[in-house]
Structure prediction request, 603 residues.
Amino acid sequence: MINSSLKTLAQMLANKEISSVELTQTFLNRIDAFNPEINAYIALDHDRTLAQAKTADARIAAGNATPLTGIPVAQKDIFCAQGWKTTCGSKMLENFIAPYDAHVITQFNNAGAVNLGKTNMDEFAMGSSNETSYFGGVKNPWDFSRVPGGSSGGSAAAVAARLCAAATGTDTGGSIRQPASLCGFTGLKPTYGVVSRYGMIAFASSLDQAGPMAKSAEDCALMMNVMAGFDERDSTSLNRDKEDYTRELYNSNPNKPLQGLRVGLPKEFFADGLDAGVAKVIEDAITEYQKLGAEIVEISLPNTGLSIPVYYVLAPAEASSNLSRYDGVRYGHRASEYTDLMDMYCKSRAEGFGAEVKRRILIGTYVLSAGYYDAYYLKAQQIRRLIAQDFEEAFKKCDVIMGPAAPSTAFKAGEKVDDPVAMYLQDIYTISTNLAGLPGMSVPAGFATSTDGKPLPVGLQIIGNYFDEARMLNVAHQYQQVTDWHAQAPTLDKPEGTA
Amino acid sequence: MALSTEDIKKIAHLARIEVSDSDAAATLSKLTGILGLIEQMQAVNTDGIVPMSHSQDVVQRLRDDVVTKTNLREAFQKISPAIGNGSEERAVDGGLYLVPKVIE
Prediction:
């Protein structure tokens, strides 16, 4: 049951083979057994969760169910959920209980989904390894000595370890796709503006985007049907007609389901810095796509190398502004000892924020300061346009772009924590789509062996043109019809003393 | 541009974050590496390129000037900080928030 697709679970619920309370309890039991080790969840409330499952059962009995009614979903702790502790992985918000629901939470509640709990994350979504959380790091379920990736590392570990049926994440520079690659599941970052950011704690507002993290492309499509849609409370939400993201999944020619699809391979994604084992897995996946009828086209995204410098100007600049509200008066932790107002601000922020967040606020403050604005912030916005134009040119030659989602498999905890530049390079293949606002996803494509002989998951990245999520999901779904990488899960040993 | 620990302290003051001397030194080495990465941008000719602040060609949406939110004062006051000094009592009094005395 824990490995079943959302569609299968919905059928089991509809056929009364299982109740939502039983399904939810199954996941809660696994959470109780494995979460103390993995640390994927940082807020749990079994009573509240089971009450929601009971309500879902009543809704199913009344014949009023949606495809996600009664399904237990984990929510990244960046989303405000009424009555739930919502910390964003920070000491700054350690005691904050959200008085309202984020749009994404409202959508899941309206669909009748069950909130299993809030998942761990890098503090304010800043990180690529889930080691910056105030509540401790998360372990990769494939190898507990390694990181799950970040910043949606708690959701990633929860999906991979089957501690939920599916989860939500957010992606500012790769925070859904990179952990999806490192933990071996399917994750989608939609087109910027497709999912409302209302009630999602802001990091870099022009880049942040929420998306689904699940076992398969089909599951992601079902999640997107709930998450996406116009919300007038978010001024960046795009006013478009409601879509059915499953619509392209089942309409393909069974012999050559992707006949005529042009797949662009950017040469910059296969250059120095890519692990040889990861490269081999991606090449094999591309061969599989050719068998499905896809045509391979060589393309170039010449400004790929600039995406990290541009990101580390723009994201900290926006973060320094967004996080100015945490001053101990309007929001967040307040220092207990201070001499005057300025001292209270400075001490509260020094105590409340962790090292990586402080570092990014300082970079942001620096690049926005008088005298440096043109040289850094304005320049970065201009190169951002060049990066977007690279994609515009590429999509004249191909329908989707493919490449690795991350340059390596999961690395050891602590390996990059003292070298921010090395950590930032983890997102080299994902950041450019955030800068351009394009959709991207990571799909399990196989395993590469680490230097110590451990087989670890590798993700294939698929990048689409604006609003092309339904097509991308079909491209991933067809691959998942002929491979079983997405169905593989780590074997977890039951802790001593558990049944 | 090379930064000094004095620059770090000045930036930290602008950001309203207290840094000790030892923190400033540690931050300096990390920020120097990051700024070195960022410097790559300067080699790119961006003459005539329009800065991109939003990925879609959209204009700011406006709504009618009517009240849309219900008053959540009680809900917000329930989650106000504790008074402190060991007391769990919320820092509200007569519907008003109690804030620390900051006037000298």
Remarks:
- Helices of chain B lie at 5-14, 21-38, 73-78.
- The longest helix of chain B spans residues 21-38.
- The beta strands of chain B are 82-84, 87-90, 92-93, 96-97.
